[in-house]
Specification:
Helix content is about 25%, strand content about 25%. The protein is α+β, with helices and mostly antiparallel strands and about 325 residues long. It has 3 domains: about 130 residues, DnaJ domain (Helix Hairpins, Orthogonal Bundle); about 70 residues, Sandwich (HSP40/DNAj peptide-binding domain), CATH 2.60.260.20; about 90 residues, HSP40/DNAj peptide-binding domain, CATH 2.60.260.20. It has a 4-stranded mixed β-sheet with strand order 10-11-15-14. Strands 3-9-6 form a 3-stranded mixed β-sheet. Strands 1-2 form a two-stranded antiparallel ribbon. A hairpin with a 5-residue loop joins β4 and β5. The N and C termini lie far apart (about 105 Å).
């Protein structure tokens, strides 16, 4: 090096600068003057080499001590950046370099680094040997998409055709029609992952994440893996009992109504619920009995009911009398 250089001035720092201040100044300047950020700019490339040289000295405790005591004469005869030489440095020589450049450019590395200081370099991998001389390729992102399906498709599974929009790295938006397989047992809030239908970067694609919303059903309600159904029954069936057909998610099933049941009684149909998507174990269906009066009863029915009430009186509100 033909002329003395002020490394602190190169980094825009006072001689009292701390290690953290040196690292921060170097990181900011390296980002600003790196050749990748200034392609074809010879002045920026030369400035970048000066910044490297300054950081190499000031970030190394022993070299910084020698420089602070003796100036540039403490390094006479040593090959340094900008001198048109090649030199193999150990990890100790480049203490802190890897962390700094990982912060700026996302490189990783380890072990010794071989640096070329003549002929120019197109990226930090060429300069420092990080990651085999190449940048880590940006990973394509997953895309989230809302998917509304009907109640029985969620219970039994099936397929659904949807159209998705994807954006490539060049900004082009394309639409794609795909058929999605719906596993049996999905519910509100379930997520379905479709491999390779997300964002595209070059030849790689992320995944499509479908957030499931299930439409309501006219007669069935779902709680976890159990299905609930309100079943209207007549007064006669409630008094005498009966065998009736009830709808389930798998078709009709026979249900025995015991004699003397009350409105609100809950009867179970085992294994007639939804399949658990993780365990494949089915829930149950619960039938809630609701005693229904006849539609538009005529005078004969009213008189008959009145006669029964007179002959067989009872007070269903007896338990409530203590609170009156």
């Amino acid at each position: 090096m033909s002329a003395a250089k002020d490394y602190y001035k190169t980094l825009g720092l006072p001689r009292t600068a701390t290690k953290d201040q040196i690292k921060k100044a170097y990181r900011d300047l390296a980002r600003k003057y790196h050749p990748d950020m200034n392609p074809g700019d010879a002045k920026s490339e030369e400035k970048f080499k000066e910044i490297q040289e300054a950081h190499e000295i000031l970030s190394n405790d022993q070299k910084k001590k020698n420089y602070d005591m003796f100036g540039n004469s403490g390094f006479s005869g040593q090959g340094r950046p900008g001198g048109g030489q090649s030199h193999t440095y150990s990890t100790e020589d480049f203490s802190g370099f890897e962390d700094v450049f990982k912060d700026i450019f996302g490189f990783g590395g380890g072990g010794g680094y071989t640096r070329r200081t003549s002929g120019g370099a197109e990226n930090l991998g060429d300069i420092f040997g990080f990651g085999g001389g190449t940048r880590q390729q940006q990973k394509p992102k997953d895309i989230e998409h809302a998917l509304t399906i009907d109640f029985l498709t969620a219970i039994n599974g099936g397929t659904k055709d949807i159209t998705i929009s994807t954006k490539s790295t060049n900004g082009k938006v394309s639409k794609e029609k795909i058929t999605v397989k719906i596993p049996a047992g999905v519910n509100n809030g379930s997520k379905i992952r479709v491999q390779g239908k997300g964002e595209q970067i070059n030849s790689e694609r992320g995944n499509l994440i479908l957030n499931v919303k299930v439409s309501s059903h006219p007669i069935f309600k779902r709680e976890n893996d159990d299905i609930y159904l309100d079943l209207p029954i007549t007064i006669y069936e409630a008094v005498n009992g009966a065998n009736v057909d009830v709808p389930t998610i798998d078709g009709s099933a026979k249900l025995v109504i015991p004699a003397g049941v009350q409105s609100g009684t809950k009867l179970r149909l085992k294994d007639k619920g939804a399949k658990n998507i993780k365990t494949n174990i089915k829930g149950n269906q619960y039938v809630v009995l609701q005693i229904a009066m006849p539609d538009n009863p005529d005078e004969n029915i009213k008189n008959l009911i009145k006669e029964i009430g007179n002959n067989y009186p009872y007070n269903p509100r007896k338990k409530l009398s203590q609170y009156l």
